[in-house]
Every structure is written in structure tokens, then in C-alpha cells.
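Page 42, continued from yesterday. The earlier attempt failed because a stray header line got pasted into the input along with the sequence. Redoing it now with the clean sequence only.
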Amino acid sequence: MVNDRLSEILAALADPTRRAILARLEQGEATVLELAEPFDLKLPTVSKHLKVLQRAGLISQGRRAQWRPCRLEVAPLQDVADWIERYRHLWEERHDRLADYLRELQAGEGRNDGEVAEERSDDKEDPL
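This time it went through. C-alpha cells are written below.
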């Protein structure tokens, strides 16, 4: 398997804990302790998640005295968005075809409703 950058980013994003960490970092820098706080995880486990995110380029760590605050890096997310954007026309075409099909169904139902109403009125005129 080719270990390309996009695969590494997507693999890092596949884990809900790592996505939650990224969501927290969207608000600003945070230390490992601050990132671990909302999770029922031990620090080594959080550190492993951070290493995966760091390898994927999604976070970076600075140095401030004895602290190593983490910060979100958005460029890899833009790479994913750009890759997904290449396929937008496919799902838009499918949505358009579905919308056309639904309109056809609704138009057909409208005709059927009219025919049923007409049959009902005919039934009233001839009770037998």
C-alpha cells in the first residue's frame, strides 16, 4: 500500500477522539493536559493520538518554557477538501438526476390523483 500524505491525513481523521482533539484546537492552542481533560484516557494514550495527528501534519507543537502547546495546522485539511472537491460534480449530477426522478414521480402521482378523483365522481352518479 502506498503511504501517501492524503492517506495519512484521512487515517488520522478516521478516529473520533482525534477529530475531537482537532475540534478543541480550533478554539486555540492547548497543552496535552488540557487536551486530555475531556476524555477518559490516560496521558500516554492521548500522546499517541497527538503523534498520529502530528505525523499527518494536522497539528504542530511549540515550546513555551516547560509546556509544549499544540496548535491546529489547517493546510492538510485544505488538501482533503481539495481532493473531495474533485468529486463534487459526481454527487451533484446524482442529486440532479434524483430530483428529476422525484419530479417525474410527483407529476405521475398528480395525474393518478386526478384520475382517481374523476372515477370517484363517476361512482357517485351511478350507485350500482
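Notes: The CA atoms of residues 58 and 77 lie 7 Å apart.
Reminder to self: strip header lines before submitting.
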